[in-house]
Amino acid sequence: MHNEVGKGGEKSALLLGASGLVGNHLLQALLADEDYGKVAVLVRRPLAISHPRLTVVETDFDNLDSASEYFAVDDVFCCLGTTIKKAGSQIAFSKVDLEYPLAAARLAAWQDVRSFHAVSSLGADAKSRIFYSRTKGLMEAGLKQSGIPSVHIYRPSLLLGKRKEHRPGEETAAVVSRRLPFLFSGPFRAYKPIPAETVAKAMLAGAQDPEIGFHTHPSKELFQMAEGLLKGDRILT
User: Fold this and answer.
1) pLDDT per position as a tens digit, 132-177
2) Computed over its alpha carbons, how large is the radius of gyration of the chain?
3) What domains sit in the chain, N to C, each tagged with a CATH number?
């Protein structure tokens, strides 16, 4: 039986993708949130972090069922993601960005998880001719059919943040957004690059009091959700 939601320190969370850009920020936010008495992360390699409320589980994501017990939590956060260049092929990319999230959702549904929160991408569309957007769209479609009571999809624009690998496109966008912010106003506001930390805070805000149903949050909404979290407002738009 899951912990009763609403009492300080009694909520529990599972995070997949804690070593990534958004996942790392989300892990820090979860550990700073005293509402979560237990936080578990599934990782391929050990994390250089320890905390009394944190359980780090080295996991073979190709055999996610072996970690099924860790899905017995209130909220599951999925920040898994890669690039085709880093993955090496479209097949390898699909495994990380589609197969693993859907496997996680299946286990979450089996454990009667309260809510599932996943990072997708602006422009996700299961019918898109663009492979990346289509894969993200298929992931969203699969989560919608998962049977989990509350599913929240977060669709950030270009992510900003310090990565281990060099990504010239993101670095250029960061410079442009700082020096020429007016380029991302009006109808182009939806495409404004967004800090990974903002996405993480938006996900935590979405989990504060998740509404039943399937919800998608576009990038421009994530700024509002993160701001609401900082102010202590429980917002779900």
Assistant:
1) 999 999 999 999 999 999 999 999 998 996 655 555 555 555 444 5
2) 17
3) 11-158+195-228 (3.40.50.720)
User: Which residues are catalytic, by number?
Assistant: 132, 136
Q: What tokens appear for 81 in the block? A: 């993601």
**Residue the block writes with tokens 């996700």:** 124
DSSP-assigned letters across all residues of 132-169: HHHHHHHHHHHHHTS--SEEEEEE-SSEES--SS--HH
Distance between CA 141 and CA 17 in Å, rounded?
20
Q: Does residue 134 contact residue 121 with C-beta atoms inside 8 Å?
A: no
Amino acid at 25: H
| pLDDT tens string 15-59 | 999 999 999 999 999 999 999 999 999 999 989 899 999 999 999
CB 94 within 8 A of CB 83: no
For residues 138 and 3, give the distance between their C-alpha atoms in angstroms, rounded to a whole number. 32
Sequence letter at residue 19: S
Residue 129 in 3-state DSSP?
coil
pTM for the complete prediction?
A: 0.85
Looking up tokens 């092929």 gives 89
Name the 3-class secondary structure at 116: strand
Residue whose C-alpha is closest to residue 198's, from 175, 170, 221? 221
